[in-house]
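Good morning N.,

You mentioned wanting to compare the apo and holo forms, so I went ahead and generated the holo version with thiamine diphosphate. This is what I fed in:
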Amino acid sequence: MFDQTDELSVKTLRMLAAQMTNKAHSGHPGISLGAAPMLYVLWTRHLNVNPDKPRWINRDRFVLSAGHATPLYFPLLYLSGFALTMADLQAFRTTDSITTGHPEVVGSVPGIEATTGPLGQGIGMSAGMAAAETHLAAQFNLADVTVMDHYTYALVSDGELMEGISHEAADFAGKQALSKLILLYDSNNIDIDGAISRETITDAQTRFRAYGWDTLMVADGNDLEAIDAAITFAKTTDKPTLIEVNTTIGFGSPDAGQKQAHGTPVSDEGLQILAANLDWDYPAWTVPAAVATRFITHVYDRGIAAYDQWVSDYEAFADKAPAKFEALNMSFNHELADVTDILPTYTVGSDQSILAVNGDVIDAISKRIPDLWGGSADLAGSTYARVSDSGLFEADNRAARNLAFGVREFAMSTIMSGIALHGGSHVFGSTFLAFADYAKNSIRLAALQQLPLIYLLSHDSIGAGQDGATHQAIEQLMQFRNVPNLTVIRPADATEAVAAWQIALESSSTPTIISEPRQVVPTLANTTTTGVRRGAYTLSPAANDKPEGIIIGTGSEVQVALAAAEQLRAAGHNVAVVSMPSFELFVAQDTAYQASVLPPNTRRRIAVEAGSTLGWERYVGLDGAIVGIDQFGTSGTDAELMIKYGITAENVVAQYLKLS
Ligand SMILES: Cc1ncc(C[n+]2csc(CCOP(=O)(O)OP(=O)(O)O)c2C)c(N)n1
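and this is what came out, ligand included:
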């Protein structure tokens, strides 16, 4: 089945990879030279993609989880007909080129399915994609017409399997029997610092079988037939599959088999040695005509044929099930039905759990937003992150809308990203704010990938109470506010919480964190959706709109700000209270609006938030005051802890009165 042109094609990939690192004076030749055959077989014999329509909804997904293998990945995309040129390959890693050091879905080469590079996260994202595929297939495929039916593949490396995320994600995928998830494991036993035997004795196959996966072994990573047979078999089983492929890092180069092959660009001399070892006799950057044709026939044409077949199925689907057709299109366009008329409202003065608001909102909107699904890292009972009239997503209940992510915050976040990258869903996930640190790098990666995820992060301060310091977020709010392209909203009450949900749902390219207190808070007068949309607004104005001073509060501390204002007003101080649920949304307002909320010449300003003070200087100035917490908390009732740490109206008043 494989012939000399296939062998020549693999050599071409290897030579291009080596030349890219040589020209860039950086990059990763090791895995690129070693894994070229397995990706060649995958791309030319299995992967169904349409380079002219890189967003085709039923394409196979391929995640370069070992994101450093771009010198292999970009030539594959180029030769397959995606929109990049030889000049792009030659510009690898140069400033502003689309051939970035690691694959990026935003601003890099078309056809990239996930931004990778932080090792291991691609495994979680590919599991999310595979889960999304089964979920959409269950909802949309008709008895006689299939519109969603594809595989998800990923290339993974030794280092990735050492990452904890590989455990979390594989455990999830095995339990969920994500049978169309296939990992190609580049097993070269070398990482950056040397042999992995220095670090692990784990047998990956035994480990993955324990998770409920099928495992296969390809003893020789250059054996195209064996690789093909393994992938062919993996596609037939009812479990996810790990295909371990034995390779030599830096195959054919002078550094072959050694640690320096990982990230040392191939030298001029090394290129000559590689060419000699591969029996390659072409000028630099040559793609032999037969190779170019092989990619066109075996990736491009094969992909177009699959696409054309799908289009005719899709037309039949549109005829037979027009409502589903419309819903599926809406979902993939990330369009939202208007839900403003069915959102819950709350009586001013009533005490309300913001966590229960999550449940109220989800229950209200889930019928009108059928592509909304999600879950929690084992805290749905606490955060109400569930669709109450739907079941649990499982192998025999794929249309169900509740994802039991398990106690795996990092995997939850990567799986959410994978679901969003796949397309066709609005997805939420939840845990405690302090534990979102477990998922931090994935939240960062979601922001970088512009994924509109909804994170419901509760127990957002010392108000978490008796569980103590470990469960009480301190620095997390400011930490997440510091992540680019991430909106953090800390609603003051139920009204603002509903608004936060609306903003999160409407987002198309920014993830949203809704930071929520464990404790019940009163529903305040004058809190508004419009105000939340603007990030900050005057909740309680000063007399004549001429404030002597301003008290800024967020979340559960807005009530503290209001109580402090009452005391100050009684003592003759004409203060205003500003609710500031979101720094990011406020920063996005024009300066006139910002100045109307925080008049520049009103210098007596004080902020109150039960978290780190660092950063509040931006809004209160160096001459203002901040009532916050810069130490870890302790166990106690939330009411007593607020007093212990000075998050009280009395303390706000005292600090305010010290301002000149
Ligand atoms: C989370 C994370 N930690 C560390 C790194 C830096 N890093 C890049 S590749 C790598 C390990 C390389 O070993 P392996 O995964 O086996 O890849 P190979 O050397 O075979 O290319 C490390 C530590 C990273 N990219 N991501």
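The mean pLDDT is 97.

Happy to go through it together on a call whenever suits you.

Best,
F.
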